[in-house]
């Protein structure tokens, strides 16, 4: 009975369900197309993806929480610059912390870590006129972070395997199946294909819920 | 005198052409792609207008950052310059945006101002602008090279966005399988265009 009610409510408020499930149903990379530059160009190996993910973990939620607390009464044009400024300050601290942790490896992604400061993944909220509570910003920040980390690590491992036959440096194959996988155009192609598969899974999940709901009725 | 002027012009155009083609901000580096795709799918934003505003901001911000960032490297904070640079660049973007908004606010009618302010907010700060500035600073470009590279990048961005929006308009129809419609087919289309650019440049970065 509980499951029937849950499924019915999920379908009835499908937009809300999608919005809540940022890891799967509205993944920031595969469904919304956010942070495409760092993912397509820099997330070519497990190591690079780990560095990107670590930065997003340290950057996204703190930026969202701080800005939600300070920008409640600001207009959109003002928020446009307040968000990236807060994000840049948090980034500076996070970048320094990463440098202290892993040395010059933290700089290995070049321009692709600093541009996260202005990526829609981090700062797209400035366009919203709705005010965010502290708890909502923490929960949504963590959900977005988890969605990004999942996509980034998945793509990093897949591209490393296809381009070099290794995963996290461990040799799995002696041949490279798709040498172009570590190039930007290979990145776009692989993200496009994974997005299509992701979209298929979301549609199948919705169909399954509709069938189950019809069965209960 | 003439030879110096010719050299300067040649450098300017060389860097502009490189940034439009071989070093295209979207196809070679992916910078500003998420913002661009959001802009294309937003009916309130016009591609040409958005990219023209972006070009203006790119030029102003490149000049500001070229003048301001080296001061950090000469200050007592030089040891932390790498970590402070993004803050400085965003601050430069903020200053240029505020100046442009103030000028437009005083010169335009209220209805016209409200109409364009929405596009300006997205065009004034994004990874295409910040990424290009960081690349120019990192490679130690001189003033002419910085301006040429910045102008070429934004023209390259405009051309790429026009190609993508036209492609998106044509490929989003019923013949495309449902799961490929939207983001997946657009990314596959971009990958084909990026592959063509890389094929032309011999699979290497020109700079």
Structural overview:
- The complex is a heterodimer of chains A (217) and B (207).
- Chain A has 217 residues and is mainly α.
- Chain A has one domain.
- Chain A has helices at 2-12, 14-20, 36-42, 46-70, 76-102, 120-123, 134-164, 184-216; strands at residues 166-167, 170-171.
- Chain A has a two-stranded antiparallel sheet with strand order 1-2.
- In chain A, strand 1 and strand 2 form a beta hairpin.
- By secondary structure, chain B is an all-alpha fold.
- Chain B has one domain.
- The longest helix of chain B is centred in the C-terminal third of the chain and has 29 residues, at 143-171.
- Chain B is globular, with a radius of gyration of 19 Å.
Rg of chain A to the nearest angstrom?
19 Å
- The order of strands across the largest sheet of chain A is 1-2
The ordered string of helix (H) and strand (E) elements of chain B is: HHHHHHHH
Mean pLDDT of chain A: 89
Low-pLDDT parts of chain A are none
What order do the SSEs of chain A take from the amino end to the carboxyl end, as H and E? HHHHHHHEEH
Tally of individual helices of chain B: 8
Number of strands of chain A: 2
Gap from first CA to last CA of chain A: 11 Å
Brief account:
Chain A has one domain.
Provide key terms for this protein.
heterodimer; A: 217 residues; mainly alpha; two-stranded antiparallel ribbon; B: 207 residues; 8 helices; globular
Task: Produce the secondary structure layout.
The complex is a heterodimer of chains A (217) and B (207).
Chain A: H1 2-12, H2 14-20, H3 36-42, H4 46-70, H5 76-102, H6 120-123, H7 134-164, E1 166-167, E2 170-171, H8 184-216
Antiparallel strand pairs in A: 1-2
Chain B: H1 2-20, H2 33-40, H3 47-73, H4 81-107, H5 110-124, H6 127-138, H7 143-171, H8 183-201
